[in-house]
Every structure is written in structure tokens, then in C-alpha cells.
């Protein structure tokens, strides 16, 4: 099991025996990821989208990097995505951000287009969900003009 140092003190006080196998799990994961990527580099040709990049948190995005990705999408595709907007705060007081992807992102088309909602990171320690959604968002934005199926989705849905 993985425990913070404060929990180890509780085990010690309760006289529960334990053995530490890894002193710093985050550092071990980082080392493992660096070694893996050195042996198995991700080439541009292997990626589904050009905008999607690996984050600095073991390949996944930090909170700040998620915000940077959303802002980059707005900069690159201003006619297809809104600026990020708050839909509330998390239990820890962090702002929960949303964007809308649409052929008319700044208009309310909910009476004529079916809404679609994608979310990520609603469970802690599941960063792959955000990576998946960011990659899919870039896929929609990058392929809107060239793929009729993507164009149809963006033109006929209100995607949040």
C-alpha cells in the first residue's frame, strides 16, 4: 500500500510492523516513466493529434498544464471553442473549468442541438481520464474542417 508519512507514524504507534519498499513513490514513477520513454519514444507519427502532448506528471497533466491546454485550444481554434469558464469549485477549493466546442461556441443552441457532456478527473488519482478528454478535444478541433464525420458532430451537438 502507499501511505503518506503521517500514516506511517500511526502504524508505528499502533505497533503494526511494516516494511518500506519504496521511499518516494512519485520519484520512482518518474524514473520509471523516463526510462520507459527513453526506450520507447513517442513519435509525432504515432500520435492521434498534433496538439496533444505528454504532461510533466508521469506523462499526465498537472492542474496548471490542463489550464494551459484549454487556453492553447482557444488560441488555436477561437471559432470552435469557448474560453474556459468556471462551473464551480472542487472539495479542495480548486476551480472546476469547462469549455464548449461547437460551430457556434458562443451561442446557445441547446434548443436545436443535442447536448453532449464529457468530463474527467471526477475521481482522484485517475489522470488518464483528463489525458483522454484533452486528446479527444484536440481530435475534434484539428479534424473539424477535414473530416465530415467530425464536422457533423461539432455542427450538430453542443459539446461541453
Can you walk through the features of this model?
It is a single chain. With 160 residues, this protein is mainly alpha-helical. 13% of the residues are buried. The protein is 40% helix and 9% strand. The strands form two sheets. Strands 1-2 form a two-stranded antiparallel ribbon. A two-stranded parallel sheet has the order 3-4. The model has no long low-confidence stretch (mean pLDDT 85). The protein has helices at 5-13, 25-39, 63-76, 127-143, 148-156; strands spanning 85-89, 95-98, 114-116, 157-159. It folds into two domains: 1-41, no CATH class; 44-159, 3-Layer(aba) Sandwich (Aminopeptidase). The chain starts with a helix and ends with a strand. Helix 3 packs parallel to helix 4 (127-143). Strand 1 (85-89) and strand 2 (95-98) form a beta hairpin.
Strands of the biggest beta sheet: in what spatial order? Answer: 1-2
Name the overall outline. elongated
Total count of helical runs of at least 4 residues = 5
C-alpha Rg (nearest Å)? 20 Å
Given the helix and strand composition, which structural class is it? mainly alpha
Number of structural units classed as domains: 2
Largest sheet: 2 strands, antiparallel
CATH topology of the largest domain: Aminopeptidase
Topology as a string of helices (H) and strands (E): HHHEEEHHE
CATH superfamily of the largest domain: Zn peptidases
- CATH class of the largest domain, named Alpha Beta
Low-confidence segments = none
Distance between the termini: 36 Å
Averaged pLDDT = 85
Strand segment tally: 4
The fraction of residues in strands falls at 5-15%
For the record, the CATH architecture of the largest domain stands as 3-Layer(aba) Sandwich
Amino acid at each position: 500500500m502507499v501511505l503518506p508519512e503521517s500514516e506511517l507514524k500511526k502504524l508505528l504507534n499502533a505497533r503494526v510492523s511494516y516494511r518500506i519498499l519504496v521511499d518516494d513513490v512519485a520519484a520512482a514513477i518518474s524514473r520509471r516513466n523516463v526510462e520507459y520513454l527513453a526506450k520507447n519514444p513517442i513519435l509525432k507519427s504515432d500520435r492521434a493529434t498534433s496538439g496533444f502532448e505528454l504532461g510533466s506528471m508521469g506523462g499526465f497533466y498537472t492542474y496548471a498544464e490542463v489550464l494551459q491546454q484549454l487556453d492553447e485550444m482557444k488560441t488555436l481554434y477561437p471559432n470552435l471553442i469557448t474560453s474556459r469558464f468556471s462551473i464551480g469549485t472542487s472539495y479542495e477549493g480548486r476551480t472546476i473549468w469547462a469549455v464548449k466546442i461547437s460551430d457556434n461556441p458562443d451561442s446557445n443552441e441547446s434548443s436545436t442541438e443535442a447536448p453532449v457532456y464529457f468530463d474527467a478527473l471526477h475521481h482522484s488519482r485517475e489522470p488518464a481520464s483528463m489525458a483522454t478528454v484533452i486528446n479527444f478535444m484536440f481530435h475534434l478541433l484539428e479534424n473539424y474542417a477535414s473530416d465530415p464525420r467530425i464536422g457533423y458532430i461539432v455542427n450538430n451537438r453542443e459539446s461541453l
